[in-house]
Amino acid sequence: MFCDWYVKKNLSKSKSSKFIKEFKKIVRQLISNLKLKNNFFVHRDFHVSNLMLVNNQIGLIDSQDALIGNRAYDLASLIDDVRLKTSKSFKKKVFNFYIKKQKKLDLYKFKNDFDTLSILRNLKIIGIFTRLAIRDGKKNYLKMIPYAWKLIRMRISKEEQFHDLKKLLNQNFKRKLNEN
Q: From 11's CA, which of 103, 127, 138, 149 has a CA 20 to 30 Å away?
């Protein structure tokens, strides 16, 4: 989605071709470096708009995209939700709360996958929101794209494994990646 909609809208045809080829190579590498098994129920659209309070319990809606996947995906979706801006300290509190509730969780593997999946998910969201604006005329989604870039910047700067992706994004979308 990121390549099909955002990249093609924001880069020239020759630049986008080169970018997409390199981007896909980097994404394949990042995915191959995921550490956890795909053995958990993953809602895949786990964000504040799909959570409802029912009889003092949290209910989920919009689960048609659910599948068995990486256990870090839904937490990354919730903590780095572009629809609800939260502080770094709040994000950290939610992350730590989840970690404390888990038994036999390898924190290194989980954090690796959490960061990777957050970055890739937010890149996908940028593409989806661009598509919604262009194809469906839903321009209100465009206002959330800068926060998606901010979330990517927050996660991408922390680990060496993202060096190639950060370099590629900086070469092509430096202003977007570095906006406040």
A: 138
**Can you say whether residue 62 is alpha, beta or left, with left for phi > 0 and alpha for psi between -120 and 50 degrees?**
left
Residue 146 near residue 179 (C-beta atoms within 8 A) = yes
User: pLDDT tens for residues 76-109?
Assistant: 988 999 998 999 999 999 999 999 998 888 999 9
| 91/84 Cα distance (integer angstroms) | 11
CA-CA distance, 47 to 74, in Å (whole number)?
8
Rounded to an integer, what distance in angstroms lies between the CA atom of residue 97 and that of residue 61? 23
Phi, psi of 58 (to 5 degrees): -90, 125
Widest Cα–Cα separation across the chain? 55
